UniProtKB/TrEMBL annotation:
Pfam families the UniProt entry points to: TraB_PrgY_gumN (PF01963)
Descriptive protein name: TraB/GumN family protein
Key words of the record: Signal
Signal peptide: 1-26
Domain of life: Bacteria
Keyword Signal: yes
Length: 300
């Protein structure tokens, strides 16, 4: 069960990043890809892989180009250090000691929430103790397929099986911070909206998976500029401000931390696809920092 906490966090951060709605890639004619080569003078090449949380087996498989890049990497990283200690810390942060969500949310909505969380691999005993922001985070992740290893877990598994040095770009605390920063007064209204619109979010995610299979970050970005949450008009302004502020700040932190492995070279890092495109995205920020970032598109 603990492993599902880590995959839910990864998926939710992906979904949250996608909904930021920044401008499309600065160069609309730029070649699109999910794998990007990172170069700097006198430094071995590194690689940046756009990842998503998917329930589709074809999408979860690494392309031949990705496997080739992994084969030459000395260092392999994911967004956060996905070890047992981090997952335990995550669970402790997300759960209250005593069940309280049913009372806070209300009986009718709580009854609707139970099967939605169960479909993500968690029993009612866990749902009962979820903090409202943690339930929001879980509903922002798609329903997982059985026996399908998430992409970030695949990278960790590959590094362990092939004797590569593994690292996390962010801490669990930094990953959870955007959700914890949701104003307390807004958490329950947002959670109720997510419960109501969960089926729409699932359908929208299928379109995102299709765009990912085409290796088209711009299309993914366009799909997720839509206000899928259908928040009441009075709540839309704070939501946009919250997501933009937290995620723009996160991008600044990520690009600074990516400089560490990329200065070494021979590094391979998986970061959720929503962080890469846009004038404030990782591709643009890495270029501004002096790196050559080139799309490496290849068929499955």
């Amino acid at each position: 069960m603990l492993a599902r906490f880590s995959s839910s966090l990864f998926a939710a951060m992906t979904a949250l990043s996608f909904t930021v709605a920044p401008p499309a890639l600065a160069d609309q004619g730029e070649k699109q890809a999910i794998l990007w080569k990172i170069d700097k003078a006198n430094t071995p090449s590194s690689w940046l892989l756009a990842t998503i949380q998917t329930t589709d087996g074809q999408t979860a498989e690494f392309t031949p180009a990705t496997l080739a890049a992994l084969g030459g990497a000395k260092y392999i990283g994911t967004e956060f250090h996905n070890d047992i200690n981090s997952v335990v810390d995550m669970a402790r942060t997300m759960l209250d000691e005593k069940p309280s969500l049913a009372q806070t949310l209300g009986a009718a909505d709580y009854a609707k929430l139970l099967p939605l969380i169960e479909s993500r691999g968690y029993p009612a005993s866990v749902t009962a103790k979820l903090k409202p922001w943690a339930a929001i985070m879980m509903l922002l992740s798609p329903r997982p397929a059985k026996d399908l290893i998430p992409m970030d877990d695949r990278l960790l598994k590959y590094s362990m099986e092939n004797g590569r040095k593994y690292f996390g770009v962010e801490s669990v605390e930094q990953q959870l911070a955007p959700f914890q920063a949701i104003p307390a007064a807004k958490q329950i209204p947002l959670l109720k909206t997510l419960i109501k619109n969960e089926a729409k979010l699932e359908q929208n995610y299928k379109q995102i998976v299709a765009a990912y299979l085409k290796q088209d970050l711009n299309q993914i970005q366009k799909l997720l500029q839509i206000e899928a949450l259908a928040l009441p008009e009075a709540d839309r302004a704070w939501y946009r401000q919250w997501r933009n502020e937290t995620l723009n700040q996160r991008n600044k932190i990520i690009v600074e931390r990516l400089k560490i492995p990329f200065e070494k070279g021979d590094s391979f890092v998986g970061i959720n696809a929503g962080q890469l495109p846009g004038k404030d995205g990782l591709i643009a920020k890495l270029r501004a920092a002096g790196y050559s970032v080139s799309a490496f598109s290849a068929a499955k």
